[in-house]
Amino acid sequence: DVKVTQSSRYLVKRTGEKVFLECVQDMDHENMFWYRQDPGLGLRLIYFSYDVKMKEKGDIPEGYSVSREKKERFSLILESASTNQTSMYLCASSLSLQPQHFGDGTRLSIL
Amino acid sequence: DQQVKQNSPSLSVQEGRISILNCDYTNSMFDYFLWYKKYPAEGPTFLISISSIKDKNEDGRFTVFLNKSAKHLSLHIVPSQPGDSAVYFCAASANDGATNKLIFGTGTLLAVQP
Q1: Domain ranges, ordered by start, for chain A
Q2: Which residue segments constitute the domains of chain B, with CATH numbers given?
Q3: Tens of pLDDT along A44-91?
């Protein structure tokens, strides 16, 4: 079974802090994704990567950056956290033309 | 602009009956559609998919129907079970090669009453 592991289930940070969310997958998937889930808005794509060191903006990239130095790891970075970035963050991975597999999410609160 | 819409935020069904979840899309370039199920405090799990070359795909109790002319798909669950209670998201993709970028709907909360 595919395993997508997100480093924290719950995280509380302060406004202005630099925040790192880590995601690791164990199935050699080339594609990795970061979403945020908010009530009434569904899942919205922040960034994705289709190869090591490659990244593409999703629908809501503002205020975020990503890093993919190794194939199995995809990091989401909040450069200067703000309260409107309080959300559930979900990481996913996939092979080409295959369904995405998700981690269990990180609930991030920015105070 | 919401390209994938789930207009029913919630649905309540009796155990043993049919659950029908609906999804509409606006982008005619979408050619692959998926349904995901999400329990609280867990990530979404893939349920079933359909390519635009088909109009129906079935997997056990789950069937997805696609009406391309109406830009509409639906997920049927028969018979519904209490364990099916979850949020269901539909998602769509335009085949852009390898990247599998998905657009998700806002979700429908299904409650199956015992």
Answers
A1: 4-110
A2: 4-113 (2.60.40.10)
A3: 999 999 999 899 999 999 999 999 999 999 999 999 999 999 999 999
Topology adopted by domain A4-110: Immunoglobulin-like (2.60.40)
Contact A50 B99 (CB under 8 A): yes
User: How far is residue B88's CA from residue A108's CA, in Å, rounded to a whole number?
Assistant: 22
**Contact (CB<8Å) B101/A58:** yes
Residue B43 has its nearest CB partner, among A40, A98, A103, at A103
Strand residue runs (E) in B15-113: 19-25, 32-38, 45-51, 56-59, 62-67, 72-77, 86-93, 103-104, 108-113
What's the pLDDT tens digit per position in A22-42?
999 999 999 999 999 998 899
